[in-house]
Amino acid sequence: MEREVERELKIQKIKNGTVIDHLPAGSGLTVLHILGIDKGYKNAVSIAINVPSKRWGMKDVVKVEDRILRPEETDKLSLIAPEATINIIRDYKVSGKNKVTIPNDITGVLKCGNPSCITNKREPITPVFSVEKNKPIVLRCKFCERIMERDSIEAQL
């Protein structure tokens, strides 16, 4: 009889910062890009890709030391990882835990895919999208009514 070996994921704890858990498998690098971490971030960053998960099958996890997400970063994150959990770490302990939520309106995060949209002209108008559907994500431009789906959304992030 074979003996089952217990396996543990070993990623170093962070003293202060943010842990983003329950990311869709394979999205961890996109999260780093959204956060601007792929451009020479100076503090510790850990990323686990395709980690086994009882609930999801596979998931990604990102740990970022000395960084708290801004609201616009959370809005961007919600577009690719609507089930993610954001854990705030203080002195090696979880001091806050929040589920990512997709807001009803997405403001100033994406550009409209319609080149004729007023938001893509020389007018100083910030793009605003209403969320038409959460799974899969579907957005509608509030100005020209153009629909944007996951592929065109992810291409802009």
From TrEMBL:
Molecular function in Gene Ontology: metal ion binding; transferase activity
Cofactor note: Binds 1 zinc ion per subunit.
Known cofactor(s): Zn(2+)
Pfam families, sorted: PyrI (PF01948), PyrI_C (PF02748)
This protein's record includes keyword Metal-binding: yes
Residue span(s) of domain Aspartate carbamoyltransferase regulatory subunit N-terminal: 9-100
One BP term from GO: pyrimidine nucleotide biosynthetic process
Keyword Zinc-finger found: no
Domain Aspartate carbamoyltransferase regulatory subunit C-terminal: 106-153
InterPro entries in UniProt: Asp_carbamoyltransf_reg_N (IPR020545), Asp_carbamoylTrfase_reg (IPR002801), Asp_carbamoyltrfase_reg_C (IPR020542), Asp_carbatrfase_reg_C_sf (IPR036792), Asp_carbatrfase_reg_N_sf (IPR036793)
GO cellular component, one term: aspartate carbamoyltransferase complex
Keywords in alphabetical order: Metal-binding, Pyrimidine biosynthesis, Zinc
Residues that, per the record, bind Zn(2+): 112, 117, 141, 144
HAMAP family given in the database record: Asp_carb_tr_reg (MF_00002)
Family: Belongs to the PyrI family.
Role: Involved in allosteric regulation of aspartate carbamoyltransferase.
Self-association state and partner proteins as the record states: Contains catalytic and regulatory chains.
Protein name per its UniProtKB record: Aspartate carbamoyltransferase regulatory chain
Organism: Candidatus Naiadarchaeum limnaeum
Gene: pyrI
